[in-house]
Amino acid sequence: MNILILGSGGREHTFAYKIAQSNRCEKLFVAPGNAGTASIATNVDLKVTDFGAVKKCVVENNIEMVIVGPEDPLVHGIADYFAETSELQNVMLIGPSKRGALLEGSKQRAKEFMMQHNIPTAAYESFTVESLEAGKAFLENLNPPYVLKADGLAAGKGVLILKDLSEAKQELENMLTHSKFGEASSKVVIEEFLDGIELSVFVLTDGKNYKILPTAKDYKRIGEGDTGLNTGGMGAISPVPFADGVLMKKIEDRIVKPTVRGLSEEKIDYKGFVFIGLIKVDNEPYVIEYNVRMGDPETEVVLPRIKTDLVDLLEATYRQNLGNFNIEIDGRAATTVMLVSGGYPDAYEKGKEISGLENVEGSIVFHAGTKLENDKILTNGGRVLAITSLDDDFRKALKKSYQNIEKLSFDRMQYRRDIGFDL
Ligand code: AMP
Ligand code: GLY
């Protein structure tokens, strides 16, 4: 069958890499894609939230399966658009409906869902500009640090963690009254701070059944030792060494099962990935957030460990056959290290030539922000390349990634040398 992947990052290159290996895939398209996807698929230049352009691409190329990488088109209702459009009704779209995507699109909705279905999470209240004073009073009754979350999508920047009460009150006001995060912060969730270690669990669900995919841990801060600004993610490791059988059973029983049951009870169409951000506090798991897609760079370590044919797995998801499906996981560890442009996550330059790609051995290079121009591969984003390696344990895998990184270069290339430092 012909398959289309929507998106342009390392996550989408990784999906393309796995799908290109399946003998069920005839022609593979990535829209808009990058220089990496161009080497194994046909890139289509379109905007992923332009559903009319997506439809044209699907119809013209006889596409039978569409995998949605980022959250934006999902939150804007691409799955509903496919279901309502006669030419697209039989296309296997992997991604939740708009109602399902609200689990990521609204922090308040996610919290209500967790309360409704008894899923462990931090205590919270939400506030709008009308209840600003009540919000400040609520902060006075909490212990620091204070966690403020813009309700809507804010490109990963909408969460503030503040030590000082007066600063927290000021930021609440900035969010509600001065639209600090635009429309996204017209509502703010204030929640209890949870002190623990984070991990992510990935679930594939067809709305009734589920499969738990490999766990991963990402490194979000730009600086070594988890310092400096938040980024999209500077590296990742899978599996998470401390996610042992006991913890995973708690996560499955208390979080994964009630989440899938909740979706089904609320009659939400959900055929896709649930990325559950968790924090372990004294051996007990709590949900920090839901995302309705795979993570980036987590995908770059999770998918390479799935041995099962990805097209078969996704088709079973679409046909609600996951209950009978067996999924085989590679027992080795996977790591990825992100190479980023100097200045990222603040301003950075694009268009720098990348050299040394042909010398990489024993690692997989996933392109994130790259483009092909006059036969040269140029940087085209903050996050540029993800260097993934597999080995018996994560330290050996990391060594391979770092050895290969020595062979790669572009002007003002940066990366963290301490991925996995806390494990
Ligand atoms: P989110 O966008 O919801 O994933 O939040 C971004 C980051 O803020 C998370 O990855 C955590 O590191 C941190 N965080 C969010 N909520 C809490 C909380 N209730 N307690 C402690 N840290 C949190
Ligand atoms: N790496 C975090 C995310 O994809 O949201």
TrEMBL record:
<dbReference type="InterPro" id="IPR020562">
    <property type="entry name" value="PRibGlycinamide_synth_N"/>
</dbReference>
<dbReference type="Pfam" id="PF02843">
    <property type="entry name" value="GARS_C"/>
</dbReference>
<protein>
    <recommendedName>
        <fullName>Phosphoribosylamine--glycine ligase</fullName>
        <ecNumber>6.3.4.13</ecNumber>
    </recommendedName>
</protein>
<feature type="domain" description="ATP-grasp">
    <location>
        <begin position="111"/>
        <end position="319"/>
    </location>
</feature>
<dbReference type="InterPro" id="IPR020561">
    <property type="entry name" value="PRibGlycinamid_synth_ATP-grasp"/>
</dbReference>
<dbReference type="InterPro" id="IPR000115">
    <property type="entry name" value="PRibGlycinamide_synth"/>
</dbReference>
<dbReference type="Pfam" id="PF02844">
    <property type="entry name" value="GARS_N"/>
</dbReference>
<dbReference type="InterPro" id="IPR011054">
    <property type="entry name" value="Rudment_hybrid_motif"/>
</dbReference>
<keyword id="KW-0547">Nucleotide-binding</keyword>
<dbReference type="InterPro" id="IPR016185">
    <property type="entry name" value="PreATP-grasp_dom_sf"/>
</dbReference>
<dbReference type="InterPro" id="IPR011761">
    <property type="entry name" value="ATP-grasp"/>
</dbReference>
<dbReference type="Pfam" id="PF01071">
    <property type="entry name" value="GARS_A"/>
</dbReference>
<keyword id="KW-0067">ATP-binding</keyword>
<keyword id="KW-0436">Ligase</keyword>
<comment type="similarity">
    <text>Belongs to the GARS family.</text>
</comment>
<dbReference type="InterPro" id="IPR020560">
    <property type="entry name" value="PRibGlycinamide_synth_C-dom"/>
</dbReference>
<dbReference type="InterPro" id="IPR013815">
    <property type="entry name" value="ATP_grasp_subdomain_1"/>
</dbReference>
<dbReference type="InterPro" id="IPR037123">
    <property type="entry name" value="PRibGlycinamide_synth_C_sf"/>
</dbReference>
<comment type="pathway">
    <text>Purine metabolism; IMP biosynthesis via de novo pathway; N(1)-(5-phospho-D-ribosyl)glycinamide from 5-phospho-alpha-D-ribose 1-diphosphate: step 2/2.</text>
</comment>
<keyword id="KW-0658">Purine biosynthesis</keyword>
<dbReference type="GO" id="GO:0004637">
    <property type="term" value="F:phosphoribosylamine-glycine ligase activity"/>
</dbReference>
